Every structure is written in structure tokens, then in C-alpha cells.
Amino acid sequence: MYQALYRKYRPRTFDDVVGQSHITRTLQNEVKTGKTAHAYLFTGSRGTGKTTCSKILAKAVNCPHTQDGNPCGECEICRGIDDGTVMDVLEIDAASNNGVDNIRQLREDAYFAPGQAKYRVYIIDETHMLSTGAFNALLKIMEEPPPHVLFILATTEVHKVPATILSRCQRFDFRRIGSEDIAGYLEKIAQKEGVVLEHSAGLLIGKLADGGMRDAVSLLDLCISHGGAVTAEVVAQAAGLAGSGHLLALAKAFSEKNTASSLEQIGTLHDKSMDMERLCGDLVAFYRDLMLLKTVEKPERLIVALPEEMEEMKPLAKRLSLSQILYTLSVLQEAQNRMSRTANRRTELEMSVVRICNPAMDSSADSILARLEDLEAAVRRGVLADPPALSEGRADEEAPVAKGRPKPEKQEAVLAAQAEPAAKTVVSALGDLSEAQPFGAWQEVLGRLLKTNPPLFAALKNSDAYEKGDLMLIDAKNDLFFKLIRENEFAKDSLRDALLAQTGRRYRLGPYRPQGQSPAKPEADPLETLLRSAKTAGIPVEEK
Question: 442: Cβ–Cβ under 8 A, 6 or more apart, which residues?
Fold first, then answer.
């Protein structure tokens, strides 16, 4: 009979366990020195090795021929524990044996000495499923266990285990296994099975397994059944990964504010029997990938997608602002939550699409931020266009220029004429800064600074700024600003971050004062002014 790969290649010693060296090393040392605890708690996500390490530890504490803390795997005890014939090692499923009577029976049996092994080992899987009464019954024997008893509790939801139990266990947290480690282990299995496994396919399996080795080996088993070499395309087909073509087309329509095209595409997918709730979930995952592409230096490690799909997503992520992506995510997640409470899921999704394509209809903070970023981008381009009509549902038509506002080419001339006097002042004051220009978004930068560093904002009251390349010259009226910039790294970083958030560029900072202007006197402390006025008026004041 065929044996599944995850059972065939289950680790037999601590050295075979992948990605949990911080745990296996400690357990090996405890076995070598004979300083094992009477109770252990193994917690972590599924498939990370909790039950496997429990069985290895049960063998190690009972094996008479341990090798560097590992069980030998050849003696009668090791083979008996592997095939389940040693009755002194019991694996209990707490999901189906969670009552107080089950634990009472365990307590009664625990006081009997082991028959074959040195220790009676109780492995309680899914411990968090025990009832309150069962936990109380277990607590009594864990407080004063017989010397020949060892408890190993395994759970995926440690927050449901009472603190009284946790405090009596030696706890180990199993981490999710990295995609590279999973791929390396799968390549060893494929080599033993005589199968060609491409490295990119192994990495994709590792990402799909979400850090669980058991899920990864099971998926490899499925891919091998398809026959031939295991490639990334075979993995995608075996895992049922839907192509992202329709998601990319929808996202492009969203970015163009094209309501009509978006609704038509959803209608087409609905006619093809696409489940609307699943489509909404796929869109959430797609925009999550766009968010990672926008914010993470190496997003390939966090995104589950074929390489060609990644290349198609990158231009879209570059074109969208982070606020637009987050706004779309929030709208789609709200729709996903509502879909579980309504029968007409298509309507819910269509309503959300209309909101995404027309942020002006939404009064949420995310919508306002997305609209402000669109407006700022339009101002930087020198064009303020009217928003497209909702009934038309199109954003790709040429938008009319607002009434009373000059055309782009005329507007540039007006801005240049307005900037000329200020530019001449800079030139006369600094001589060599002939290309310096007044920085038009300075008030917006100060608005951002008010939220992140109010003291620095106050020091920049009535200030101006001039820009030359990557140099930002600050004309501040308060010398406190220059003191903060010289002595306080947080102040300097706050101003640079505010400039980066507003412009997308990182500037060097420098001071600027027009010729003939003496340094501004620091503003008087209001408390000191009040004290002097009180003393002058003859009011007794006691200073502490």
C-alpha cells in the first residue's frame, strides 16, 4: 500500500527536524544532561513539528542508547514507540477526548509504574480543546506528578490554555518554517523519489504552505502525481491557483476610475459562475500584494505569485499611491464582511466598486486621504481637472479645465512670474544659489509636521523654504529651529520625513536668512512673563 510522503519522510530524530533548531538544540541538551522537565508545552501553527518533536522526545527520554541527545531509532523501545506498540507512550486527541472523565481516567492510570519504558509519556494534542473541568483535573496531577510521568501538551491556540497550566510547563514556540528551508527539504525528498523539482517550484510550494512542512510535503506529493518534472506551473495547477489576469484588468479599471468597465467585467465573471465572495477575497489578496510591492524592499518573499504575474503587477503598484491601495483594501474588506450576511453578494460587490471608482461619494478618512493625494498630484502637474461624471463612468476622457483657471501652459508662465521676485531675493542673498526656487508645498509640509513633531512646527511659525536640487533652505524667524536641527536628531528626521511624505524626495537641510537680517530673538517663556507682571503689580508669588 502506498504511504504518503509526509508519513514516509517524517523526522525520526531531532537532527532531522527542519527550521526549529532553537527548540531541538535545547531538548537534546536536556536529554544528554538528564535534566528534562516533567511537563512541556509545544505551541505554533499547524505543520511546524509539534507532534513530531513530541514523539522524538518521548523516544529520547526512554531510549537506552541515545546518541548526542537523539534516540537511536533501532532499539525495541524506539521501534515500539514509532509503530504504537509501546503502551507507556499515549497520544491523546483532546478534540475528541476533552471531558473531565477522560482526564480522571488519565490521572488514575498515571500512578501505575511504566511496563516497558522508563517513563509514562502523555502527549495531549490540541490541548486548548479541553473543557474547564478537564483542565482543573489535569492541573492537580501536573502540580505533583509521579516521578515516572512526563506530559507533553501541543496546541495551535495557546491563548486558550489557562495560565495555571502554562506556569507548570516548559514552553516552546514553534516558528513558521521559511520558504527557502522548505524548498531545500523538498528537493532532498524529490531526489530520493527520483523526481525533478525546480527550485522555483519548491519556493512556490513553501509560500503556499504558509510555513507548514506537512502541508508542503503533501502538496509535493500531489504535484508528483501529475507526472513529469515539478515546475512552478505544475504547482500552480495542482494548488488551484487562479490566474490573476481578471484581477489585473479590474485593478486597472479601478485605477482609471472607470466605473462602467469595472461593472461590465464583474458582470462577465458572474455569467461565468464566478462566486462573488471569492472574487472579493481574491481582490483583497491582490491589493495586499500591491501594498507589499509598494512598501517592501524584497516583496517576492511575501507574495505568492508566479514570476510573470509579479512583473505585471509592478507597473500598477508604481502608478498607484499607497493611500489609494489602502482605501481600496478597506472598501473591499467591508464588502467581504457584509457578504456573509446577505443573499445578493453581487450587488454588495458592485456597490463597493462604485465607491472605489468614485471616492468623492465616500466620506471616510481613507477616501478623503486618497482624494487629497489625487488633488496634490494634479497640482504638481499644473492641471486641476473636474472629476468625471458618475453617469459616464469614465476617467480616460480629457477633463475640462476649471473655469477662471489658466490653461497649463499659461499657468506655468503665471507661476514663473510670481516666483521671480522671490528667486531674485535668494540670488541676492546667497549669490551662488542661482537655481533656488521658492518651495510651494511648504505649508503642506508644516501641516504634516504638526502631527509628528508639534514643538518643531511651533519653531517654524511664519517660516519659508527655498529649493535647489536636493537641498532645502529654511528661512526661519525663530532661532530655536536652528538649535533643534543642530542638536536634535529626531527634529531633523521629522522634517526630512515630512518632506519625503509630501514630495517623495529626500532633501538635505540648510539654513537661510536674507541679507541684513539679524537672528530672531527667542520667544519669551509665557510663564516667566506672567511671573514678572505679577511681581510688578505687587502680587506675592512663591516660586517652587
Answer: 463, 464, 465
Inform me whether the pLDDT recorded for 528 exceeds 90.
no
Beta bridge partners of 473: 466, 510
pTM over 0.70: no
Residue 298 CB neighbour total at 10 angstroms: 7
Q: Name 125's bridge partners.
A: 93, 154
Does residue 360 surpass a pLDDT of 80? no
**Which pLDDT value is given to residue 419?**
40
Residues 395, 360 contacting (CB under 8 angstroms): no
Residue 23 exposed, middle or buried by CB count within 10 Å (0-12, 13-18, 19+): buried
In 490-542, DSSP assigns E strands to: 508-511
Q: What is the pLDDT at residue 3?
A: 82
Looking at this protein, which amino acid is placed at residue 11? P
Task: Return the SS3 of 230.
Answer: strand
CA distances from 455 to 451, 461, 473, 525 (A): 10, 10, 20, 14
Put residue 197 in one of left, alpha, beta given phi > 0 → left and psi -120 to 50 → alpha. beta
Q: Please name the residue that has the C-alpha cell 467581504.
A: 336
145 sits in the region (left: phi over 0; alpha: psi -120 to 50; else beta) called beta
pLDDT band at 153 (very low <50, low <70, confident <90, very high): very high
Q: Judge contact between 316 and 255, C-beta under 8 A.
A: yes
At residue 116, what are phi and psi to the nearest 5 degrees? Answer: -110, -40
- The answer to whether the Cα torsion of 339, 345, 349, 354 is positive or negative is negative
Q: How far apart are alpha carbons 244 and 252 in whole angstroms?
A: 12
C-alpha distances (whole Å) from 40 to each of 163, 438, 537 are: 14, 67, 75
pLDDT at 375 over 50: yes
Q: Which domains does the chain have, with CATH numbers?
A: 5-173 (3.40.50.300), 179-239 (1.10.8.60), 245-381 (1.20.272.10), 408-511 (3.30.300.180)
Of 332-341, 398-407, 528-537, the one with minimum mean pLDDT is 398-407
CB environment 388-419: b (16+ within 10 A), e (fewer)? beeeebebeeeeebeeeeeeeeeeeeeeeeee
H or E element at residue 50: helix 50-62
> How does pLDDT run across 268-308, given as a tens digit for each residue?
888 888 888 888 988 998 899 899 988 888 887 788 777 77
Nearest alpha-carbon partner for 37 in 51, 57, 59, 18: 57
3-state secondary structure of 152: strand
Contact 370, 359 (CB under 8 A): yes
Q: Which residues contact 402 (CB under 8 A, 6 or more apart)?
A: 384, 385, 386
